[in-house]
Design a protein that fits this description.
2 domains, Tachylectin-2, Chain A, six-stranded antiparallel beta sheet, Jelly Rolls, 526 residues, 1 helix, mainly beta
């Protein structure tokens, strides 16, 4: 008798951080995933996996937002909304919406890049969540939704004919699904277009980001009429609003569905659900009743057939030994070269700009990364060198509210500073200023599972950490989770000079608590 090794099991979420509105494809046994990036630059992050569970960073498709002057300022909640990723005719294609400007298209031979410059396919406000479909007969189509915040219309899906090269639309569009005609539908958006067994399929979420469900529509024509079925909802599980994502088929023929769950300050984390097809031709997802009714999310499941776990993950820590920023970092607006320098020597140099708005939510040169979805500690060192009076630099937890701790250059030397702010015009201090003997300081943000952040500092390695007497209740950003970040800024009108030397940055996370693996089993054969 020989014993086969146990079947590996994964636990949801497979991406425990803010990867909003995921879409994914499989090409030659490798999976690629993209996510919304909103105002953050570089945008359109691209992840890569060989098993749909363990993901690594592969690059960014968007070096900067094309409306350069508009996005030189921080535009919370604008920029890249829910994108679609497809592979067609030997190229990867991304269609993304900017709700204030229109629908853009870019393409590449490799998902890792380089990507073409964005082409404006459809100009206009309120156009969101586009997804193309290339039919086997050579025809091409585009489906998209609508943003009420920009145009006063939502809860409907529209299909256009499109030129096969994705260069232009060929008609004014047909409204194919109106959520107002469906009981209980309030926010129908995020459509993904597919074709299978002679049916045109639109996978689309409804009901809102935090409380919605996943629906599927099918028709014999891309222009309808469409039938509807709900296929995934929260049920009695703890996974609220499970919806909006990607149907992916493995080389072995298995079907899977990647979707997000909104976790507030942690952002939209990504889950992986098993998927299949009922006898009546409709799909099922997650843990589904025998009759193929609405499924609920699984907490854990065996890996896709033919795959094994891999020790990869998107990076968080950065030792700054490379000559460019790690892929985990992004700015809050289109950056300038003058904002930072990295020579590959183990340190990042931030150059303070004379642009302090006295509100870090409006500071474009905040360098951020997503907040881990599990308790974490963010640690780094800052040193001010020849900066003007009034310059401040530090670490920040940034959302619609924020808090920071850092160092300020004064006329008399250096002091420990802190502050808290939000959507109002100015921030307020959180603690008393403490004189410092040196322009160099170590800083730490400790975030628990509430999530609440505690800040600490010390003058040098080996000294005890001084934990501040205030805590910060972490708040999500505009359509995104909270972020951990670095900043350096000088008062308006001051001379721009000097450097803030940073690094390395270390991010430690708590082990993930994993439930008993229901699907984990050893098998034997004779």
């Amino acid at each position: 008798m020989t014993t086969r090794p146990p079947t590996p099991v994964y636990t949801n979420p497979v991406l425990n951080g803010d990867w909003p509105d995921p879409d994914a494809v499989q090409v030659d046994g490798t999976y690629y995933l993209i996510a919304s990036s909103f105002n953050r630059v570089p945008g359109l992050p691209v992840l890569r996996s060989r098993n749909l569970v363990d993901w690594e960073h592969a690059g960014h498709a968007l070096a900067e937002l094309p409306q350069g002057s508009h996005y030189s300022l921080v535009r919370h909640g604008s920029g890249v909304w829910a994108p679609a990723l497809r592979y067609h005719n030997g190229r990867f294609w991304i269609f993304y919406p900017d709700p204030d400007h229109g629908i853009f298209v870019l393409s590449a031979e490799r998902a890792e890049g380089p990507w073409s410059a964005p082409h404006l396919l459809y100009a206009g406000r309120g156009l969101i969540d586009p997804c193309p479909l290339w039919d086997e007969d050579g025809e091409a189509y585009l489906v998209h939704g609508w943003a009420q915040s920009r145009i006063g219309v939502k809860n409907r899906l529209t299909v256009h004919r499109m030129s096969p090269d994705a260069g232009r639309l060929l008609d004014h569009g047909t409204h194919v699904v109106n959520g107002a005609d469906l009981p209980g539908y309030t926010t129908l958006e995020g459509p993904k277009f597919y074709k299978r067994d002679g049916w045109y399929w639109i996978f689309a979420p409804a009901g809102g980001v935090a409380t919605g469900w996943q629906s599927v529509f099918r028709s014999r024509s891309p222009f309808g009429p469409y039938e509807e079925r709900r296929v995934l909802e929260q049920g009695e599980t703890a996974v609220n609003g499970p919806h909006q994502g990607a149907w992916v088929t493995t080389p072995e023929g298995e079907d899977w569905f990647l979707h997000f769950q909104d976790r507030g300050p942690y952002g939209r984390v990504v889950h992986l659900q098993p998927m299949g097809w009922c006898a009546d031709g409709w799909p099922w997802m997650g843990e589904s009743p025998d009759d193929g009714g609405t499924g609920v999310p699984v907490a854990s499941h065996t890996y896709p057939a033919g795959t094994v776990p891999e020790d990869v993950a998107p990076p968080m820590s950065d030792n700054f030994t490379s000559p460019w920023l790690g892929p985990q970092w992004h700015w809050q607006a289109n950056p300038r070269e003058s904002w930072s320098f990295q020579g590959g020597g183990g340190q990042l140099v931030l150059r303070p700009q004379a642009n302090d708005p006295v509100n870090l939510r409006e500071l474009p040169n905040v360098l951020g990364q997503i907040l881990p979805g599990t308790p974490s500690t963010f640690t780094t060192v800052l040193e001010l060198a020849d900066v003007p009076e009034g310059t401040r630099a530090g670490v920040v937890v940034l959302g619609q509210q924020y808090a920071w701790l850092g160092i300020i250059r004064t006329a008399d030397g250096y002091v420990l500073g802190s502050g808290k702010g939000g959507e109002g015009p100015h921030e307020r201090p959180l603690g008393r200023r403490i004189p410092l003997d040196s322009p160099r300081i170590e800083l730490q943000i400790r975030t628990d599972g509430t999530p609440r952040s505690t800040f600490a500092w010390r003058a040098g390695a080996g000294e005890p950490w001084e934990v501040q007497g205030w805590n910060f209740d972490v708040v999500q950003g505009k359509w995104i989770g909270a972020e951990l970040g670095l900043f350096a800024t000088s008062p308006l009108g001051s001379q721009e000079k000097g450097n803030v030397i940073v690094g390395p940055v270390r991010v430690d996370t708590a082990p993930v608590s994993r439930p008993a693996p229901r699907h984990y089993a050893a098998t034997s054969s004779t």
